[in-house]
Amino acid sequence: MDGHDADDAKKSTADMTAFVQNLLQQMQSRFQTMSDSIITKIDDMGTRIDELEQSIDDLRSEMGLEGSPSPSVPPKAKAEPKSGNDSA
Q: Where are the transmembrane segments (predicted)?
């Protein structure tokens, strides 16, 4: 009986090992798919941001504001008096 139980234990261990390996492979595949999807979305967002920046630059050049500072970095000197005027 001990030999039969030992064979069952070995088979059970092998089955569990195969199950865990299969599960890990499925998880790795799913994580890879999600990772690829996230990277694609980030790349798409970067492209859209570049297009938006180009559109803003085109609009600014049409308006003749090529020499003015970028709207993403407002000058601090202009921002402070504005808030100061609101409180006065």
A: none
Is the confidence at residue 23, as pLDDT, over 90? yes
CB 75 within 8 A of CB 69: yes
Residue type, 37: S
pTM (whole model) above 0.85: no
Q: Are the C-beta atoms of 71 and 56 separated by less than 8 Å?
A: yes
Report the chain's C-alpha Rg in angstroms: 31
| Type of residue numbered 86 | D
* Cα–Cα distance measured from residue 13 to residue 24, given in angstroms and rounded to the nearest whole number: 16
Judge whether 66 and 60 are in contact, CB under 8 Å: yes
